[in-house]
Each structure stands twice: as structure tokens, then as C-alpha cells.
Amino acid sequence: MFSENTPVRNSLLAALPPEDLARLRPSLRPVELPFDQTLYPADGPVDAVMFPESGMVSLLATLEGGEQVEVGIVGHEGLTGLPLVFGDDHSLVEARVQMEGTALRIGAAAFRAAMEESAALRGLLLRYALFFQAQVTMTAACNARHPIEQRLARWLLIAHDRAGDDEFAMTHEFLSMMLGVRRPGVSVAANTLQKAGLIRYVRGRMAVTDRLGLEAASCECYHTARREFTRLLGPGSSRQRG
Predict the structure, then answer these.
(1) Tens digit of pLDDT for each residue in 5-45?
(2) Residue 51 in 3-state DSSP?
(3) Which CATH number do you get for residue 40?
(4) What range(s) does the Cyclic nucleotide-binding domain occupy (predicted)?
(5) pTM for this one?
């Protein structure tokens, strides 16, 4: 049970009116998100919603040959288990922890009941779904058209937003899977960003050393998705539109 005195670190939950959050608290349970844990499999059931408070979860599409490509990212700004928002309990993609952290878990039945009871929660979650659609849309456009250096800069900005620190664990193998390119291409792109003084990469640890420079090196896709998040879920949006 999530105590009434425990502060909320998930942005969606924090945006709820106090009375709606109070009704939800008894159904929330704090859980750990260990690195590489699968929260639900591709083409499998979704039995709970996770509201991350730290860390990062990747949503991975799996192709027939077994290759996996990241199609979406969830951190403290959102939730996993989006099919449940729309009344479904099946996921096309796998949800896997790519940056360890913590979350607040609520079972599917309790989540559905909470959505029925709270118009504010329903409105907030539907706006988040619109933002997530925008993120997936820009990811597809970015991967199809932009150079790998820009794509890598964009992805590192997204990871940096959710890491809570300038330095975090990251390997070229992982980035290769996330960007859908071969490892040598990732190595060349990372070396380019490092030579420009934007990042530092040593033994599986990535550090963002020039945030503004990395934003300038990224394509418009990062900024477009960020503006959409602010439009849909920025300060004051949930309570005024919920």
C-alpha cells in the first residue's frame, strides 16, 4: 500500500487532484524495477499498470527473425500498460526495464475501477496516450529520415531526461538495438558526439557533458515530442481540462 504521507514522484500521479490521488493510493504498491526485467511480453497479457518514479522502460517491437527495435520509452512522466487505458489487456510490444528504478504498481482490475470513478484520471491518461502516440510517430519519422548522429543525440536526450543524473549505464550493444542499427554505426556516431565535447563514454558508462550542445546536435524530433508533452501534460493542463 502507498501511504498517504508518501510523496509522489510520478508526474501523472502528481498531476491528479488531491482527492483523486487519495482514492487511488490504497491500490498502489511500491515495486523495484531491476535492470532487464520484462514487465510484460510481446503478444502477451498486461495484468498491471506501472507508474515509474525513477528509471526507464523501453517498449520493444519483435520481428519474425527475433530482432528487437525500440518503439517507445516510458519514465517518470508516464506509465506502462497503456492497453488497459483503452479497455484491452493484450500488448503487441514487450515492456523491458532498460534503466533500473522504482515504480508504483496497480493491478488491472483496480486500475479499471479507478478510471471508472475518476474523470480527472481518465482525461489525464488519454492525454498521456496522445503524447505517447506523438513520441512513437516522431521515432518512426526520425529512424526513417535522419542521420544516425542526430538519432543518437535524440535518444541520449530522452535517456538523460529520465536518468536523474548526467551519467548513466549504457553500452553500444544496447544503443544498437534501441536505434535499430549495427554496432559499428553506433560507435562512429558516439565518437563524433564525444569529439564534439557533448558526451563522454567509458566502459559502459555514458555521461552528458554539454546538454545544450546535445540538443543542438539532435534533430527536430526530440523538440517536437517535448513540445507536445508540454501542450498536453504541462503545468495546469490536467486539472483545467480533466
Answers:
(1) 788 999 999 999 999 999 999 999 999 999 999 999 999 99
(2) strand
(3) 2.60.120.10
(4) 12-130
(5) 0.91
